[in-house]
Design goal:
Length: 708
């Protein structure tokens, strides 16, 4: 530092000069000299003036290297002093003109700056910066310390062999009294300056902080002067974690493949996630970014929710979240991240990325990324299942939809018979989350509801069915496929016959499907609008005619209208196959009569048809006919009302003659058209008797016709 020398004129030979003898008048000029002349000593100002302008003048002496001890004197005086030139050394309180003059610069402040970055004089250039970059917790780092002169310049010749300490302080809440009032440093080390350091030196040891900090400041404490010199860095810097470890309460299968893992979570309902920085001091709030669903998923779902601020003591943040989809999801690298913790450094002292490796070269050399997150893809979180199903009803398809055209007062009605297999209810089943959004990933093996299992749907009817009648599965299983969380289903049903005759009923089918995870509806829901059910029977009527013409045996579909059986004019659907007919109990006159009835398939139109039976040759015949409503085989006495035909002689059993191939081919069941023909239960096959020429009269009569 420069040595100050005070020059004054005194009228006394006493040293130091008594105040009363100091000269305040006139004008004395001259210069301060130093001996020897080398090393050179510069004096500022080069000349002085004392007297009426001021009793004293101060001249600053700055030595050059290596400095030394000099004898002070005066030269060029405008007046010669009577008592000569005398000196008083205030440091030793003695009369001596010997003075030690050094070239040590005067240090008034310190700055901390990144190694390799040029120091800027902030006194002359306030807009300049001496940056300190973002650091990583538990990672070594260093920086430079710069000794600063009062004018802001680097003290390039400063030397300090001891008593200089570099300290780091948490500056989240700066102290009110400035740089000297910081207390409890988070880290510190000693530093020395040699003359060859030019007033700038890198800290000798690496700092390594096992904690995260939003805002640190560097302070240099120099105890070589009195009072102690304190210098604080003009820049603050953050020490951030290198990453986040993300875990979740939804951890049934970390591979994201199991479709039946325990404890599934409903889509749209809450689960927890934690993000651990691995260091205390981290108090940031992580953010959820992009995610990826399990392999084969239709779409990536959305995670809703937020993390709370991390606990400073642990560096762990916890939050409540929900996932909109089914199955599993995970976060790719940096899917959960913090981009705000290093805000003190952002835009200048860290790069806009997630890098944990400092930039090697260029303008950003030495900088880490401003952001940090999970450093590798997380495990899969899940398993998630739909919150519920939703049903969109369709229009029912009755078993019979073929009718005569509407005309006059007739309006056709689609209907099904009680116990008839096959009225259908098309509807849509949708898997949804708690927000009623479709969970499109409920597909493939993650769609656990088996669409072909009729029993899984929980079908029922809205209204109570007639006594003894229940809804049952069709022989044809439901059909449908899951596609992006939606299944278009066609389910077929059979409603059994009531125990007693019942009027037509309008039936609405409900469903309450349940998958193996318990996903269902809040309550049963209609799958379609109403469909009509009728209690039906098939009637075959007796027929009588001459043995010279074919007979037409009437076939009629009927239903109970609430008071009687009437023709079902809406039935143009029922087909009586040829193989269902059986004939027997033939009574021939004479016995040589040839009679071989050959039935054909008969399709009812407007509920009616007739089977043409070819006339016998050379005689008269009486016969019984029956329709087996079962799916195969000829008529038996157990299923029809045709028992033994008892004649006086002989007694013939009911032994029907099957006129089609044996065994009889299978056919559609018509058991829903059985009737109460000979007992109180509607289980009998229809039967009738036909006669050719029963009342023929004399054998020689060829043809008889009656007119009325």
């Amino acid at each position: 530092c420069p040595e100050p020398v005070v020059v004054l004129a005194c009228t006394s030979a006493v040293v130091p000069c008594p105040v009363a003898n100091m000269v305040y008048t006139g004008n004395l000029t001259g210069s301060v000299t130093t001996t020897p002349s080398a090393p050179a000593v510069s004096a500022t100002p080069a000349s002085f003036s004392i007297g009426s302008a001021g009793a004293t003048a101060t001249v600053s002496l700055q030595g050059s290297a290596p400095g030394g001890t000099y004898l002070l004197g005066a030269s060029g005086l405008s007046s010669l002093p009577l008592n000569g030139t005398k000196c008083w050394n205030t440091a030793t309180n003695s009369q001596s003109c010997a003075l030690v003059v050094t070239n040590t610069p005067c240090v008034s402040n310190y700055e901390c700056v990144e190694t390799g970055v040029a120091y800027s004089n902030l006194t002359t250039t306030p807009s300049a910066r001496n940056p300190l970059y973002t650091k990583l917790a538990s990672t070594d780092f260093k920086f430079d310390v710069v000794a600063v002169q009062p004018g802001g310049a680097q003290a390039s010749t400063y030397a300090a062999p001891a008593n200089v300490t570099v300290e780091l302080f948490d500056n989240s809440t700066p102290p009110p009294l400035g740089c000297s009032s910081y207390a409890s440093p988070v880290a510190s080390q000693s530093i020395t300056f040699a003359s060859g350091d030019a007033g700038r030196k890198t800290v000798p040891a690496s700092f390594n902080l096992p904690r995260a900090y939003r805002k640190l400041i560097c302070r240099v404490r120099d105890a070589n002067s009195a009072p102690t010199i304190y210098g604080c860095s003009s820049d603050n810097f953050a020490v951030r974690p290198s990453g986040l470890q993300v875990t979740s309460s939804a951890n049934a299968d970390v591979t994201g493949t199991s479709t039946s893992s325990a404890s599934p979570i409903k889509a749209g309902t809450s689960f927890t996630m934690t993000a651990a920085a691995g260091f205390p001091g981290y108090d940031g709030t992580p953010v959820v970014g992009a995610l990826i669903a399990h392999a084969g998923a239709v779409q990536n779902g959305a995670v809703s929710g937020t993390f709370g601020g991390a606990a400073t003591a642990t560096g762990i943040a916890t939050g409540s979240f929900s996932y909109s989809e089914v199955g599993y999801f995970r976060f790719n690298t940096s899917g959960v991240y913090d981009d705000a913790f290093t805000s003190v450094d952002q835009s200048t002292d860290c790069t806009n990325d997630f890098s944990n490796t400092p930039v090697a070269s260029g303008v950003d050399a030495g900088k880490y990324g401003c952001k940090f997150g999970n450093t590798a893809a997380t495990t899969y979180f899940g398993r998630f299942i739909p919150d519920h199903f939703a049903i969109t009803p369709g229009l029912p398809v009755a078993a019979c939809t073929v009718h005569p055209a509407a005309s006059g007062g007739y309006l056709p009605v689609d209907f099904s018979y009680f116990d008839q297999d096959g009225f259908a209810t098309p509807f849509t089943l949708t898997a949804q989350n708690s927000g009623n959004q479709t969970t499109k990933n409920y597909a493939g093996s993650f769609a656990r509801f088996v669409l072909t299992n009729w029993a899984s749907y929980g079908f029922s009817t809205v209204a109570v069915l007639p006594a003894g009648s229940v809804i049952q599965a069709s022989a044809t299983p439901p059909a449908g496929n899951w596609l992006a969380g939606v299944a278009a289903i066609t389910a077929r049903h059979r409603v059994s016959r009531p125990t007693a005759l019942a009027a037509p009923a309008n039936v609405v089918v409900n469903a309450l499907p349940v998958d193996p995870d318990g996903v269902s509806l809040a309550s049963a829901s209609a799958v379609s609008s109403a469909t009509v059910l009728r209690f039906g029977r098939l009637r075959v009527s007796n027929v009588l005619g001459p043995d010279t013409r074919d007979l037409r045996m009437p076939i009629e579909a009927q239903f109970w209208n609430g008071s009687s059986f009437v023709r079902n004019s809406d039935d143009s659907c029922t087909v009586v196959p040829a193989s269902a007919w059986s004939f027997g109990n033939y009574v021939k006159r004479p016995a040589s009569v040839v009679f071989s009835p050959i039935p054909i398939d008969k399709n009812l139109v407007a509920g009616f048809s007739a089977l043409t039976i070819a006339r016998p040759t050379a005689g008269r015949v009486t016969f019984d006919a029956s329709i087996n409503l079962a799916t195969t085989g000829p008529e038996t006495s157990l299923s029809s009302c045709l028992k033994n035909l008892a004649l006086a002689s002989p007694t013939r059993p009911w032994a029907p003659i099957v006129t089609t191939a044996t065994p009889s081919p299978s056919r559609a069941s018509l058991l829903h058209l059985a009737g109460q023909w000979c007992d109180s239960t509607p289980t009998n096959n229809p039967s009738a008797r036909g006669s050719f020429g029963l009342y023929g009269g004399v054998e020689s009569l060829i043809y008889q016709r009656e007119n009325y």
